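Hello,

I think I submitted the beta-D-glucopyranose job twice by accident. Can you confirm which output corresponds to this input? Input:
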Amino acid sequence: MAAEKVDPVLKERCKDLILDLDTLREISRRFLHDVDKGLRKDTHATSIVKCFVTYVQDLPNGTENGKFLALDLGGTNFRVLLIELSKDHFEMRSKIYAIPQHIMLGSGEQLFDHIADCLASFMKQEQVIAETLPLGFTFSFPLTQKGLTKGILERWTKGFNCSNCVGNDVVQLLKDAIARRGDIQIKVCAILNDTTGTLMSCAWKNPNCRIGLIVGTGSNACYVEKQKNAELFDDEDKGSGNVIINLEWGAFGDDGALDFIRTEYDRDVDANSVNPGRQLHEKMISGMYMGELTRLALEKFTKEGLLFEGKASDALFTRGKFYTKYVSEIEGDPAGVITSCRDILEELGIYHATDQDCFNVRYVCECVSKRAADLASTGIATLLNKMNEARVTVAIDGSVYRYHPHFHDLMMQTISTLVNPGIKFDLMLSEDGSGRGAALVAAVACRTQQKG
Ligand code: BGC
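Support: Only one job matched these inputs. Its output is below.
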């Protein structure tokens, strides 16, 4: 951080955004406690970190092949994909469709009709409308799985809030919507979380891959656990002896476990979300909230006269107007350079910022993004220590990890500090987990089904 150029008064006021090592260790301790609770049969129901069993047991071995469809719902975009896997090779064609806000907040029937509509139009375009292809459904919300093709929605996150879905099997909701149309046939082979897809996509080439992480619109992680520790796993088939656990770590803190570090900005973001009191860990980490957290701090410091001589613009004082991508852009300038910061402030209608203002704004961005990286790193280090394997690759995807210029380095640093001696790890950008990963889960499912 270019902290030396930052106004010391403002720096002091940012202190509540900084987590020291002891604090991270305490968070790690609390998180581990919640993970263990989620895994155990007798405590699962009351656990905040759910540790859902995914029923994905076998990792890919590179021999998967065939033609697959995939659906990807849960980030900023909804995508339909057609994937062809062959040994060491994969080809993918995809199309992005918008999910308008009225559908995100409408009825479940509307949402799934829209999904089926997009799927049919894509199949037509790709000339596979007459085929019955296997499909992997990346559905990135908390699901209690009852098998590889059955997932009960526990709650919506990330701005979605469709009625009549919570408590229902989303694979069935999809099948019903397809049946209502009557013009396409599919075979749903698997429903999976984006973290699982990310892990699988990386494991295809990298056998050390054992953890999947998303730092995008939302945040969550999954990891490979021994079946005997996943007490809710009830499949007869022991497969590899392992099973992927979808932690749903976004909910960590919903019982107050993170209250000792939450700031007034966190409380404000939460109170103004569609799911107040929920996903509190996610709200401190992910891209859906990072810009707004920064804006709230900038607004406050302006009103206190610490920025822009106390006068900013309507935009800076308007909810949602400071985008998360601004944080990445501002920190993307080399230390001491303020070109992007100036451009962004002008976009927001602030033309009178001094160089000192720009250094200060950058510092606020750095505090918010470093805190996010520290929290994600604490979760990952906790898992690495728990798994206690000599070498683990962490597969990561999501817009924040991908586009923030220092997120990877910040995470490397913090995990290195927290991980037990002797454990080696690396962090790898996982390409297209929700697409390729979904096809791989479907393919592995087909392979094992054929075997059995
Ligand atoms: C969802 C997770 C998902 C994560 C990242 C969270 O809001 O609950 O299921 O993995 O976002 O997309």
